Amino acid sequence: MKASNGLDEENSSFPTPHSSSKPLKPQGVCADVAIVILNWNGAKFLHQFLPGVLTHADGARVIVADNASTDDSVELLARDFPLVELLLLDRNFGFCEGYNQALAQVDSEFFVLLNSDVEVTLGWLRPLRNLLEINPRIAAVQPKILAHADPSYFEHAGAGGGYLDRLAYPFCRGRLFDTLEKDQGQYNDARPVAWASGACLLVRRSAWQALNGLEPAFFAHMEEIDFCWRLQNAGHEVWYHGSSAVQHVGGGTLPKTNPRKTYLNFRNGLALLYKNAAPSELYGPMFQRLVLDGVAGLRFLVAGELGNFWAVLRAHFSFYRSFGYWRKQRRAARPHLRTAERTGVYNGSLVWAYFARGKRKFSELELK
């Protein structure tokens, strides 16, 4: 779901990035917020959407962390956006470690992780920031995320707030698998959810640091779900706020049919469940996930999508090959693992509800 942030996965050690910034003292109601856009070869999106971010920043700092772009992104920023702070990373770290490296250099009380292909709207930031100020238990919040191509519909990446079923399949209010709902004000509320979208995510800096940011081994895709699950396990709350809205292009880095994205989603989906689920909700769901992944792989094969078929196999081999790492992560988290009573969990199977029972809307799942 990440746009123009790079997908050049590396396994070597991470060098320390350097920065070239234009420090400015922000003024305004959101002066303690830093809006951080991770960019990789996204000059087109920066040119299109960065002016709106600056216009509607409400006093927040605006920072672009460049993931060693090879296009003219850096030249564009220096020439056309002198008010934007620029952090230059030494190489393309991918989405997860790119943000970890960048935010380690930012000292604002709140961070906004904002995709470069997001168009913000008037007044989008203040409700999010105010929510975290009012309730110190809330560590992260997302706005309503609409499709840029047609803002009357929700967008795939986050929509009206993220949920998980008992097998840790993610879905949203406003989006079940590839079925998107029309925005008719049905999700204009504010409520706790299981996860908030990394396309536009306001995070409390103290919570980010306590959890060491995003899981670098994920590289990209589903990393915000893992982060939000860890937040809940640590006793924090994650919210959605429908009084704030942005529009997301989506698919700027990888289209949803790309085998690379299939690989990341299947591999990270297994890791997500294994490293975060409480013992009572792990082994049965894990077995069922393996079976359903096999079914998905066969569906790709029958449909002639050989690239996606091999992506599923590669995802499983990668997970098993790195099992020692994931087991270490689970052991470290074990004292904090919580049961499915946490917020935003559907006790049924989304796959069964959607494909077998024909449930196409969130409201049809009989989930509060």
% residues in beta strands: 15-25%
Count of discrete structural domains: 2
| CATH C-level class of the largest domain | Alpha Beta
The helix fraction, in percent, is 25-40%
Number of strands: 14
Corresponding CATH architecture of the largest domain = Alpha-Beta Complex
The class by helix and strand makeup works out as: alpha/beta
Low-confidence stretches: 1-26
Please write the string of helix (H) and strand (E) elements.
Answer: EHEHEHEEHEEEEEEEHHEHHHHEH
Largest sheet, in brief, is: 9 strands, mixed
Cα distance spanning the termini: 26 Å
Give the overall silhouette: globular
The number of helices is 11
CATH topology (fold) name of the largest domain: Spore Coat Polysaccharide Biosynthesis Protein SpsA, Chain A
- Quaternary status: single chain
